[in-house]
Amino acid sequence: SKPKVFVTNYNIPKKGLDLLKSCEVVQWQSEETIQREDLIKNVKGIDALFCILTDKIDGTLLDACGPQLKAVGTMSVGYDHIDMKACKERGIPVGFTPDVLTDATAELTVALLLATSRRLMEGAGAVRSGEWGMWNPQWMCGQGLHHSTVGIFGLGRIGLAVAKRLRPFGISQLLYSGRKENPAAKEVDAEFVSFDTLLSESDFVIAGCALNSETKEIFNEDTFKKMKPTAIFVNSSRGGVVDQKALYEALKSGQIKAAGLDVTTPEPLPTDSPLLDLKNCVVLPHIGSATVEARNAMAELTARNIMAALNGEQMPCQIE
Ligand code: GLV
Ligand code: GLV
To answer: D-isomer specific 2-hydroxyacid dehydrogenase NAD-binding domain: which residues (predicted)?
Structure first.
């Protein structure tokens, strides 16, 4: 009989689903995020799970699938929603989607740098509201990227792609920090520094790290205090790396200049979040990888990961 695959979201690109045509595919049909109880109900007896980053995958869920489960594939590069220890203990390989979303996410990160430093949302708002009175020599001025020092915390695939895109803007210095040096840093002339140095020297501080026990709320009251009052903080990784209340206070008090966030806690960010009252904060709805090309490729890779495991082969992109 055909292997059963449960797909947790109704809106997966067809290019990905097409690759599962030899399977019996059951797909969550609601436009609402699948809730935990429904997920547990729907995974019973499946051979593979095609999930997204809003699904929490833990031991309880894996056990609810049953012993015939052979693969989990997440259509994301981040896997902080997956308990990898629980998967390993049960011998379940987990596929993810690195590389195919790197360019799209790096591009969006650069867009956030520009949106914040050149005050794009504020400016566009002023045009609409009529607050734009005249061409004014010292109105709506920002810092710009040219001649700036940029610090990237976590120079991985995406961080490096951001760095490559920033060089042509004429930034003067590129710093990075993290657990260890990245040999590829020399391609972009990035200097490995301590986290404290990165915080105190950078005009732009970019969170490019994965969310894990070491990086949870690593951007907090203490770290915002170490940044320049002109610093701009940009996060396109995971909301959980930021103590969001501390960020709000830092933005409100002028401890730092501005922030650009593609990710928040929670998501969606409630419309009454105080962050949304701040002119110096740009919040986007987790769209880093949201190009047609990247999302198609992510769906295809997730399906290929799952099919490989179902066929007893190594996944093309398996989480170690
Ligand atoms: C998006 O946030 C991803 O992890 O792919
Ligand atoms: C600006 O539009 C200028 O002409 O300097």
So the answer is: 110-288
